[in-house]
Structures are given as C-alpha cells and as structure tokens.
Amino acid sequence: MSTPFYVSPQQAMADRAEYARKGIARGRSLVVLQYADGIVFVGENPSRALHKFSEIYDRIGFAAAGKYNEYENLRIGGVRYADLRGYTYDRGDVTARGLANVYAQTLGTIFSSAGEKPYEVELVVAEVGETPEGDQIYRLPHDGSIVDEHGSVAVGGNAELISSFLDQRHQDGMTLSEALKLAVQALSRESNGSQREIPAERLEVAVLDRTRPQKRKFKRITGGQLSRLLAEGTTTQTESESAEDPEGE
Amino acid sequence: MEANTRSTGRLPAAFLTPGSSSFMDFLSEHQPELLPGNRQLPPTQGVVEAPHGTTIVAVSFPGGVVLAGDRRATMGNVIAQRDIEKVFPADEYSAVGIAGTAGLAVEMVKLFQLELEHFEKVEGVQLSLEGKANRLSTMIRSNLGMAMQGLAVVPLFAGYDLDRAKGRIFSYDVTGGRSEEQGYAATGSGSIFARGAMKKLFRDDLTEDEATTLVVQALYDAADDDSATGGPDVARRIYPIVTVITEDGYRRLTEDESSRIARSVLERRLEQPDGPRASLL
C-alpha cells in the first residue's frame, strides 16, 4: 500500500479550478446584454437543436458555456425547481435571485467535494423586470460564486477579452438591433486581435422581451427576423463606427 | 429527500437525475403528496357539497376553434359564484374548459398548464395536440376516486393542430375516456340544451364571428332550460367567456367584444325568445 502524497488544500482547489476553466475554454463564448426592452442572449452555435439559451420560467432565462451534458443537467434541474416552486406557492415567487442561489450552492458543493469532478460550466441567469432598472443578471462561474452583473456580461473561454470590449461600448437604452450587432461584433474578436466573420445561421439568439403581452417573456429569434435585425441601419452603423474609431482604439 | 424547494440549498439529487420530461412524473417521484390523485380520501357519507361549474361549449370553424363557457357556479340550489372563470388557456395553441367540481377542476387545469409548459421547456418543442389531449385523459383518470364520491371533473379540450392546420375538439367522460368531436361539443349540466342549439345552427363554413355568436346562442339556450347555467348578466356586466384559437394562437375575447355579442343575442331574444330558427327541410 502506498502512502498518499500530501496536497495542500490551496493546491487542490487551484488544480480543480484550472481543470474546470480549461473545459469551459474549449467551447465558444456567449454574451448577455441589456437593451431598451429587455435582455438579449447571443452566442455562436452551429447546432439548431442543442441550445445554449433557454427559458426557465416566465421572466427568467438561462445561458451556459462549457460542457453540454453538465449544463443541460443544471438547466433541467432549474426548470424543475422553478416549476415546483411556482406550483407550490405562486408564479410571482419564482425569482432569478432564488434560482441563482440554488445554482451557486449546487456548483459550489460539487466544486469543493473531493469525490466529485468539478463541473466545467459557466452559467448566466437573467430576469427581465418591468423596467430596465428591474432587470437582473447573475453570472455563475464553475466554483459556485455569484456575480451580480449590469449592462453586459460574457462567459466562456474568451470572456475577458469580450467583456472588456463590451464594457467600453455598451450603453443603456440600446435598441435590440444595436445590442445584437454589438454582441456579434464582440463575439467575432479573436484573442490575437483579428476579426472573423460569424454568419447569421451560426448564431443562436434569444430575448427576454418585457413588452411581450404573454406572461412568458422568453423568445428565440431566428431566420428572417434575425437577418432583418442584423441588417437594420447597417449604413448608419458603419458611419458612426468609423467616426468613433480614432478615439476608440 | 435531503432538501426541498422551500430552502435555498443545493438542488436535491432528484432534480438533477435525468428522466422524464413530464412534470407530473417528477412530482410523483419527488413530492407525490402534491399530486391531486394521490390524496387520501376520508370515508364520507352522501355527496360532498362544493361549488360546481356548469356549461362549456366548443365549435370548430375553418381556421380554428372557439371554446366558451358561462359564468355560474352552483352549490346545490344556491348560486355559489356569478363570475367564475371556467375556460383557461392550456398553452399557446390550446384551451381547456371545465365542468364539475370547481375547486378540483381549477387545480387540475393549473397542473395541466404546468405539465405542457414543463415539457415544452425541457424538450424545446411543444407536445402534439394529440399528446396534450392524452395527457389530460391521464389526469382525469387519476381523479376517479374522487369522482366516485361526487367530485367529478369533466373538461372539454380544444386546440389548433399545427400539423394538420385545423382546430380540433376533444371531450372526456369521468373515467378519462377521450373522444374527438366533429364540429361542435358541449359538457356540463346545460350541455344537452346547448348541444341541441348547436346541432341546429352549426355549419361547416362558419366564419370566426359567426362561430363566436353561435356559442353565445348555445349558452343562452343552455341557461334558458338549465337552472345551473347562467345567462348573460347585463345588470352586473358579466358575460360569457369566449376564446378563439387559430394559427395565431389563443385569444380571449375582450369584455367589450363578448358584451357586444351577448347584447345582440339578447336583443334578438326579446323579440324571439326561442332564438334563431332552422328551416324545416
């Protein structure tokens, strides 16, 4: 029988964190932005059927980067949690804050229990409010911490680069088309500074639209509507961009 | 169970176990006591007195289907509620109207709505209309124990079938037996009278406006002959609930729209109390 090596807790945690981060970095990043009428989710996803974004409850949406089977598992857990809570109490008692807490506890317990492999996922839980001030966006990294975000957030491998790009350019009260184009611009940036083209059919886009008359505010944007939004005011956009460029970079 | 939804701890194992896309299946494994069908029934003598909903009618027309209900709930010979709602959207493309024990029926509708929504969220696609109708069958069947004690729930289910591009109506019996109805259907205590009215007025080529008028005529006839069905209450401004489901989804007529139809029907009835007449041959 061999004597196990001593590994300090710091080292063990650092190893686990690195393992999880590497797993997350293998996938493409995605972004979640506030716009005037709600919250938009944008990501690159070649699959039509396997989603990165989905509806959890009336006003709550979910986005995830990382390992599909792990975040899908968490997503379904979240839907079960929300539906059961809404059924037991009232639909209004299901909140993004509550859901984010449950996810944080779940991820945190898995991350720090030596017997389990840490989840290679990074989540965003967003809830659209009656007004932009009521919007809530929570980012949940693999270790179970919660970050309360405003305006814009990026998760996934390239997240740091993309969020700093978004932080500089995102404004309150953007239209859906403006926010969408900014998101695509941010996602097309490579770590070496170059740009690549993401065609519309590789984009997965969804919104939580507070102006929808239905109680369920989550909606996917696909096909014609997506191309229209991407094309909207393209000429004015390039003009303002070139005007802005000298001071921007 | 190590935790439940009332705390904000880690998600219990049951939540993260891969399994069925059905919310009812999840409940029956995780918290079976929340399912209406699992309730322990105390022995009772005689019939339990509880408010009952009465008449629901449905008519299909090219392009969709109309589902409507009166507003009266009765308990024995007493009117328990004058403005009860008995027609609910089940999801974007279907609706359910309920007759029978109101409390249980409303609970059943709530669970049914959740069942459809849960499936849609987990799977990313809607159930087929047939699938939804079958799911409702299962729920009624699970209520059989209470139905035997007089607490029956008998719904009418209508929806727009996106695959077949038409409106369809399903009726149920107390044991969960399901049958698809052609053209029109009714359930509840006033249904025999409503069905008679619809039989005479129904045509295959109704417009949406004609179909909504037809259901109000039928409900009027039901209220005329059945004491448990309420007619349009002009004094209190309580009108039947009329819903239309088409390719564009579920829509409930606004109070203005339903009051307009109800008032025009009522006005004609002041001159001709038995309503429109079908030709003899």
Automatic annotation (TrEMBL), chain A:
Residues 214-249 are annotated as: Disordered. InterPro entries: Ntn_hydrolases_N, Proteasome_alpha, Proteasome_alpha-type, Proteasome_asu_bac, Proteasome_sua/b. The formation of the proteasomal ATPase ARC-20S proteasome complex, likely via the docking of the C-termini of ARC into the intersubunit pockets in the alpha-rings, may trigger opening of the gate for substrate entry. Interconversion between the open-gate and close-gate conformations leads to a dynamic regulation of the 20S proteasome proteolysis activity. The keyword Cell division does not apply. The keyword Cytoplasm applies. One of its GO terms (biological process) is proteasomal protein catabolic process. PROSITE patterns: PROTEASOME_ALPHA_2. GO terms for cellular component: cytoplasm; proteasome core complex, alpha-subunit complex. PANTHER family: PROTEASOME SUBUNIT ALPHA/BETA. The 20S proteasome core is composed of 14 alpha and 14 beta subunits that assemble into four stacked heptameric rings, resulting in a barrel-shaped structure. The two inner rings, each composed of seven catalytic beta subunits, are sandwiched by two outer rings, each composed of seven alpha subunits. The catalytic chamber with the active sites is on the inside of the barrel. Has a gated structure, the ends of the cylinder being occluded by the N-termini of the alpha-subunits. Is capped by the proteasome-associated ATPase, ARC. Component of the proteasome core, a large protease complex with broad specificity involved in protein degradation. Belongs to the peptidase T1A family. This is Proteasome subunit alpha. The gene is prcA.
